[in-house]
User: Fold this.
Amino acid sequence: MKNNAAKSLHYEPLPEAMARYRHVFGGDGGAFVIVILPDSSSFLCRPGDGSVMDAEHLTRAETIEKLTAIYGEKFRIVQ
Assistant:
């Protein structure tokens, strides 16, 4: 049995992907992405003007605070 999962994968820049689904988020770009880096800091990315993404660098503490806000108090860090 062959695994065809790799054949279905394709590259699409994040701004274009979010633009396709902008209507799902109320049309105002209410979507965001958190890109977590190996040092536990992160980038909080939101749609900007046109086809660009605005990114804000978050410290480790800010990243944990944001993830806790999203997932609730049951979110915990496993090291």
In short: The beta strands are 33-36, 42-47, 53-58. Residues 12-71 form one domain.
